[in-house]
TrEMBL record:
Protein name from the UniProt record: DUF7701 domain-containing protein
Disordered: annotated span: 60-90
Record-annotated DUF7701 domain positions: 2-55
Species whose genome carries this gene: Dactylosporangium roseum
UniProt-listed InterPro entries: DUF7701
């Protein structure tokens, strides 16, 4: 077990309904941003995990736009989610 898996296991005790892939992404957030992790970053990790194999059509379009250099692509993914903020979590 590596250090990311150890953190993911600790998070799994608190978040017992999360899949292992998502817990590993959350563990990476712990390492990279720690107490400064935002709700936006947690949501982005969830999106990366939830749509890993079959992206939602709006996400797929935004990814194509980002790949083509579209500056507004990241915000296109969030259009239907007005409640997202940049507040720190925890």
């Amino acid at each position: 077990m590596n250090y990311i898996d150890r953190i993911a296991a600790e998070l799994g005790v608190l978040l017992d309904d999360c899949k292992p892939d998502l817990l590993r992404l959350y563990a990476l957030l712990v390492l990279v941003t720690g107490v400064n992790t935002t709700e936006e970053a947690v949501h982005d990790a969830w999106i990366a995990s939830a749509y890993r194999d079959q992206p939602e059509p709006s996400v797929a379009g935004a990814v194509r736009g980002a790949h083509a250099g579209g500056a507004g692509a990241r915000h296109a993914v969030r259009r239907g989610d007005p409640g997202r903020g940049r507040r720190a979590v925890g």
